[in-house]
Amino acid sequence: MKIQGKMFMWLSAFILVMAIVYGWWSKEPAGTTALFLAFGLAIMIGFYLGFTAKRVDVGAQDDKEADVADDAGEVGFFSPHSWQPLSLAIGGALAFLAVAIGWWLMYFSLPIILIGIWGWVFEYYRGENRTQ
Questions:
Q1: Is there a contact between 21 and 51 (Cβ–Cβ < 8 Å)?
Q2: What is the pTM of this model?
Q3: From residue 120, how far is each of 20, 29, 44, 57, 95 by CA, in Å?
Q4: For residues 87 and 116, is the Cβ–Cβ distance under 8 A?
């Protein structure tokens, strides 16, 4: 995880330089703002990865002598049959569409988003996985 943190820190430095050059050269506020926001996002991710790397075990990606097989194993748990990301995507798309079309559309997107979040959080608390 240490190498990913360094990569994002270098990426954030590059984006900052490009944002300054682009802002000075083009005098266009929207693209300049987007580049500065991308810099902020990259620095946050780099700081998080560097901060987390100090508290977890060293991974195979940090060892220069490691093989591909050294990083094998379980990555995490991923739900194989969840429909909740689809409802969140539809609700999110409607919410972003509300910015362009009209804020009245947000009244339809918010219930879909809330149902998707509720379903995603509690999808393993029903059926056979429910606690008594």
A1: no
A2: 0.57
A3: 41, 38, 26, 30, 19
A4: yes
